[in-house]
Amino acid sequence: MKRTCRVSGSIFEVDKSDLAFYERISPRIGGETFALPPPTLCPDERQRRRLASRNERYLYRTRCAISGKSIVSAYSPDKDLKVCERPAWLELDNRQFGRDIDFSRPFFEQFAELQHDTYKAAVMQDGEMVNSEYVHSCGWLKNCYLLFDSGKSEDCMYGVFCGYSRSCFDCMYMSHCELCYESFKLDTCYNVLYSAHSKNCNFGACLYDCIGCSECLCCTGLRNKRHCFQNTYVGEARFKELWAYYFADSFARNEELQALFKAFLADMPRKALRNLNCENCLGDDLSRCQNVHHSFNCIEAKDCRYCYDITYKTNDCYDIGTFGENMQFCYELAISGGALGKSEVSNCYFSGYIFYGGYNILYSSHCHEHCKEIFGCSDLRKQEYCILNKQYSKDDYYRLVAKLIAHMRQTGEWGEFFPLSISPFGYNESVAQEFYPLPRQQALAIGATWSEYTAPMTELRTSIRAQDLPDKLDTTADPAATAIVCAAMGKPFKLTPQELAYYRNLGLALPRFHPEERHRRRLHWQQPRQLWKRACAGCSTETLTSFPAQTPLQVLCEECYLKTVQ
């Protein structure tokens, strides 16, 4: 079935297996099955719509709606919302805002009003959190700062998707790593700097697609090598000389190494798709997956399509954007997942922030800890048989849900995720801006909102332009007491004593860029989440890749790439 995306106008295909999936997992409520219609948006626009509901980059100072104290929040203070500390939110019952269904009005309009009225947890945090106030969408952290979508880590700062890691700064997509810096997608690495897409490496820097390597510098495509520089064995003594030269607290030498790595990497072949131990899969950055198609950055998923950033035991799901884990039979969810005891997230649809158990949840947001049989609810915990946060008997719930779905079919809302217009975040605050960047007018034109809020500038006693910083850290007088003005944004930022000790320990220079700018630059490692046909540079066989055809890189099919691996 060929369909035309009603937003982009592009043609996309809904094949027989897609239609079979929609039929198989159509929600069954009160003994009645409610058929899911085929999507009206292409996969990219569906993903954009989900990402626009998520702010996982910006934190603000605001006032708790209950205590009045100053708190850290993912919601800027100019938003007319009831934002409160998470401990206070856990004590609330947002059923107090329950309301009747108005069958004369569109459902999304009514849900937007409910979402506005309920109390919001300022930040999403779960598990034991120790000295980790400035984090969002995280759990089980200790001594962490400005982490997002991360968990079970310690002494980490300025990261996204960092799990089971320790002392990692300015990193993204890290798992079981320690003492890593300015790196992207590392697994089980120790003391690895300025690197990407590598695994089981230690004491290395500027590595790309290296596995099992130790004491290597500026290398790509190596396996189980030691004491290498630019893919050439140099011996232990020479390696130590090079390491001492490049990591001597010197900004100029750090920059010299990264420029060398960039030039070296530009001439080296790239693997068309970075998939590992996969069976019958189509996508990129897939690991230990089976029957996963049109998906990106997934681990241990099975029978899934159009999924992004999902992990461990996610089965029979379509259109999920982060994070999975013990999830099954779900469709069109934004940042949802995680089991609670024996309760997993299953049979949930068109919802966001459904955490730690959930069953038969539809069109709801921020409903946690095994809510079940709820429809159109906001900010509930451990509840069932609720519509628009109003409690019903089981029989009345089933009767009203059937009537509401019939109403949504008439309004054209059934089968659609929440529209961009009711996101509590401006498009420029949301994760959508990272993957699908738009200027203000274009974002407004597609129905999104735009945040105009600018945080008040902290009064600075002393500051120094990044360009005026000395090359050597040791020559800077008490840098923790001085704000650095970002060389790119002109925005000041300060360093903590914890950061300074970290830089000194690793022989790194002081950063010249604001954390927000450092994150933006780190995204150059992030491939587009699309696939293009491209001829292999080795054998000319047509292959699929996430490297666009116009990219001036030597892209190889898997067979040809493996011949280049040392």
List keywords for this structure.
566 residues; globular; 12-stranded mixed beta sheet; 12 helices; alpha/beta; 32% strand; 6-stranded parallel beta sheet
Structure overview:
The protein has 566 residues and is α/β, with parallel strands linked by helices. Among the domains are: 210 residues, no CATH class; 93 residues, no CATH class; 53 residues, no CATH class; 33 residues, no CATH class. The protein is 20% helix and 32% strand. It has twelve helices and 41 strands. Strand 5 and strand 6 form a beta hairpin. It is globular and about 75 Å long. The relative contact order is 0.12. The mean pLDDT is 94.
What's this model, at a glance?
This protein has twelve helices and 41 strands. The protein is α/β, with parallel strands linked by helices and about 575 residues long.
Number of E strands: 41
Low-confidence stretches: none
Overall helicity: 10-25%
Shape: globular
Structural class: alpha/beta
Largest sheet: 12 strands, mixed
Number of helices, where a helix is a run of at least 4 consecutive DSSP H or I residues: 12
SSE order and pairing:
Elements: E1 2-4, E2 11-13, H1 16-25, E3 28-29, E4 32-33, H2 43-51, E5 60-63, E6 70-73, E7 82-84, H3 86-90, H4 107-117, E8 119-121, E9 125-126, E10 135-136, E11 138-142, E12 145-148, E13 151-154, E14 157-163, E15 169-175, E16 181-187, E17 190-193, E18 196-199, E19 202-208, E20 214-220, E21 226-229, E22 232-233, H5 235-246, H6 251-266, E23 270-271, E24 282-287, E25 290-299, E26 301-305, E27 314-324, E28 327-337, E29 345-346, E30 349-355, E31 358-362, E32 365-368, E33 371-375, E34 384-387, E35 390-391, H7 394-411, H8 432-435, H9 440-445, E36 463-465, E37 483-485, E38 492-493, H10 497-506, H11 515-522, E39 532-535, E40 542-545, E41 555-556, H12 558-564
Parallel strand pairs: 7-8, 9-11, 10-12, 11-13, 12-14, 14-15, 15-16, 16-18, 17-19, 19-20, 20-21, 23-41, 24-25, 25-26, 26-27, 27-28, 28-29, 28-30, 29-31, 30-32, 31-33, 33-34, 36-37
Antiparallel strand pairs: 1-2, 3-4, 5-6, 21-22, 34-35, 37-38, 39-40
